Amino acid sequence: MTSRRPVLAGNWKMNGNLQLAQELVAKFSSELDSDAVEVVLCPPAVFLANVKQLLEQNAAALAGTRIGVGGQNASALDGGAHTGEIAASMLASVGCDYVILGHSERRAMYGDTTVSVAEKFAKAIANGLIPILCVGESESERQQGNTFDVIAADLEKVVETNGKRAFDNAIIAYEPLWAIGTGNSATPEQAQEVHAFIRAHLAKISDSDANAVRILYGGSVTPDNAVELFAQADVDGGLIGGASLDADKFINLCQMAVSAK
Ligand SMILES: O=C(CO)COP(=O)(O)O
């Protein structure tokens, strides 16, 4: 059985400020003394360089932890006349190690598609970033029994576009759309069923070590439900929205991710 280091990624979405970053770094410095969890802070792009600098300024106090920064999106293009867009190379240049791709909010409101997300994935890995690929079904897709098909299509397009080793250094986040921001998390059993499918499907369609790929759960994760979710065999941590904006809750979730395994 491959051991997988859990990941706790905080997706601030269009929220937060530098004060939150300072609060998080102070908490991690004093309360997280383990490198058994990989922590990823994903603030709005305007704060990325500042958050990275804050982590570097507190490197001594953060020694023995694993904390990086990630973007919330990246362009499928390298640069040029694309107002408002941010290239993967730019994220890497300010010290990002990760980038969230294909979040359902970007698919719903900003035109991300299965094809464009696979192309963004290519730019991310070409620039040395670890993609956090978001997949998940809507309530109607689940009710119609299409959950696995919807997720399989995204995984297959990434492999078709990026090759059979695409997931060698990537993270997947299962985020059922009906659980995001609703307070209605998937049950541990629902999460485990889909995570196990993702892992099995990766083994079928790619040459990456499916047992080594971290698969995070996201969608209304809080300290009240995290222990059971993180204890699931194929749940390797979480992609956290609302709770990542509260330093106490977020560090609590990091500690739960460590103790769950
Ligand atoms: O979208 C999410 C993380 O990317 C989940 O958001 P919530 O944790 O607020 O449900």
What do these coordinates show?
α1 (18-31) packs parallel to α2 (48-57), α1 (18-31) packs across α10 (247-259) and α7 packs parallel to α8. The two termini are 13 Å apart. This protein has 10 helices and 8 strands. The model has no long low-confidence stretch (mean pLDDT 97). It has one domain: TIM Barrel. The protein has 261 residues and is α/β, with parallel strands linked by helices. The radius of gyration is 17 Å and the shape is globular. It has an 8-stranded parallel β-sheet with strand order 7-6-5-4-3-2-1-8. α3 (88-93) links the parallel β3 and β4 (98-101). Bound molecules: 1,3-dihydroxyacetonephosphate (13P). Residues 11, 103, 175, 180-181, 218-221, 239-243 line the site of 1,3-dihydroxyacetonephosphate.
Helix coverage percent = 40-55%
Mind telling me which CATH architecture this is?
Answer: Alpha-Beta Barrel
CATH superfamily: Aldolase class I
Portion of residues in beta strands equals 5-15%
* Number of discrete helical segments: 10
Number of strands: 8
* Terminal-residue CA separation: 13 Å
Looking at the structure, what is the overall shape? Answer: globular
The first-level CATH class name: Alpha Beta
CATH topology: TIM Barrel
Number of domains: 1
Kindly state the mean pLDDT as a whole number?
97
Order the strands across the largest sheet as they lie in space. Answer: 7-6-5-4-3-2-1-8
Spell out the helices and strands N to C: EHEHEHEHHEHHEHEHEH
Radius of gyration: 17 Å
